[in-house]
Amino acid sequence: MAAVAAYSSPPISSFNSLSSPIAAFSPSFPKKNHTHLPLSKLICPSCRSNPLSTPILSLLYTSGSHSQSSNTHKISQPRTPFSSAVDSIFVLCTSLALSFSLFTADVGSASAFVVTTPRKLQSDELATVRLFQENTPSVVYITNLAAKQDAFTLDVLEVPQGSGSGFIWDKDGHIVTNYHVIRGASDLRVTLADQSTYEARVVGFDQDKDVAVLRVSAPQDKLRPIPVGVSAGLLVGQKVYAIGNPFGLDHTLTTGVISGLRREISSAATGRPIQDVIQTDAAINPGNSGGPLLDSSGSLIGINTAIYSPSGASSGVGFSIPVDTVSGIVEQLVKFGKVTRPILGIKFAPDQSVEQLGVSGVLVLDAPLNGPAGKAGLLPTKRDAYGRLILGDIITSVNDKKVSSGSDLYRILDNCKVGDKVIVEVLRGDHKEKIPVILEPKPDES
């Protein structure tokens, strides 16, 4: 209340005192006894404005100074007792009105007299803040619940076994995330930016590329799809932004740059390679999986899916599945509930085992007879009657493209379509053979 005290008016009884500002401006006193207060006494300490700039004080000063002599006018008009009394009453009423307005003003605190300067941000900071505010409503929090039986009561309970992030794909309620975020879930719950929670059902998933699509029955006015960009023209060094829920913390933004392109990682579910992955140094921690990676315009360019870290926390090497790969997968999952991808229909040995044999290629461990390779006549690895291991066919090339590892084989098949006929060259015993194989779709998975 210091500001109010500074602006409180003197008691009415003091209006007849020469030391009060009202008496100083009153014209009813002789000029020789005028005691003028310094104008600095009336200046607001926070704004330092001229007191005469206010209409009431300006009027008071004009009224009081109208009997003053100036250098130009040497003779002043004689004043009648009636005019002096009218002036005194006018000044008294005006000062009362001023006092009443100061006491009834809702000053609250000294902040009413303080003009605070707005926080100044640089242009790049403003752009980052705007990007976060515009895209946060599109990012969701996913809770993975698993049904477990209590050991003592034998009751079946739903226990949270993991969490992750996701983003809204369209107004129909489709949510895109990583497959490993929802793997093994008996129930899924999606929390939107306004903290409203909805049960979600699985529309479909692609284990090989670690992508899954959920759907929630939320009002359309709460669903804000994320703007989808392209990942074909990305450059190393451009800024990227990751939004997610690391460690369960609500909507966190991390920034960085693209530190590498065309990386290759393996799917956590099947081990199948995911190609053309984006590498970034934006902090990606547990809980960020499934969240969006955005460019400086706020468009989606990838899904944050994995990190390279011995400790499990961010080490500055994160990986995102490019949006060009994700878009095609999501379209198939939304339309068909599954991804139609061609397979050769074999199980092969780890690359290290083949290297120990001193050969280069993919060793066929199993080729079911109802699969494409089994129908074409590829031989699996087996044991004879004495328990000795008989190696199966070793695939060395497909369509004249060299195959030296399982990743090479997957990379070639990703460029093929269901129904395509491929020429598989195998090393059988001490000679090579070329076997035509017709690719078939991957069987449905529950």
From TrEMBL:
<dbReference type="InterPro" id="IPR001478">
    <property type="entry name" value="PDZ"/>
</dbReference>
<dbReference type="InterPro" id="IPR043504">
    <property type="entry name" value="Peptidase_S1_PA_chymotrypsin"/>
</dbReference>
<keyword id="KW-0720">Serine protease</keyword>
<dbReference type="InterPro" id="IPR001940">
    <property type="entry name" value="Peptidase_S1C"/>
</dbReference>
<dbReference type="GO" id="GO:0010206">
    <property type="term" value="P:photosystem II repair"/>
</dbReference>
<dbReference type="InterPro" id="IPR039382">
    <property type="entry name" value="DEGP1/8_PDZ_dom"/>
</dbReference>
<dbReference type="Pfam" id="PF13365">
    <property type="entry name" value="Trypsin_2"/>
</dbReference>
<dbReference type="InterPro" id="IPR051201">
    <property type="entry name" value="Chloro_Bact_Ser_Proteases"/>
</dbReference>
<dbReference type="GO" id="GO:0004252">
    <property type="term" value="F:serine-type endopeptidase activity"/>
</dbReference>
<keyword id="KW-0809">Transit peptide</keyword>
<dbReference type="Pfam" id="PF13180">
    <property type="entry name" value="PDZ_2"/>
</dbReference>
<dbReference type="InterPro" id="IPR009003">
    <property type="entry name" value="Peptidase_S1_PA"/>
</dbReference>
<dbReference type="GO" id="GO:0009534">
    <property type="term" value="C:chloroplast thylakoid"/>
</dbReference>
<comment type="similarity">
    <text>Belongs to the peptidase S1C family.</text>
</comment>
<keyword id="KW-0934">Plastid</keyword>
<keyword id="KW-0150">Chloroplast</keyword>
<keyword id="KW-0645">Protease</keyword>
<feature type="domain" description="PDZ">
    <location>
        <begin position="333"/>
        <end position="405"/>
    </location>
</feature>
<protein>
    <recommendedName>
        <fullName>PDZ domain-containing protein</fullName>
    </recommendedName>
</protein>
<dbReference type="GO" id="GO:0006508">
    <property type="term" value="P:proteolysis"/>
</dbReference>
<keyword id="KW-0378">Hydrolase</keyword>
<dbReference type="InterPro" id="IPR036034">
    <property type="entry name" value="PDZ_sf"/>
</dbReference>
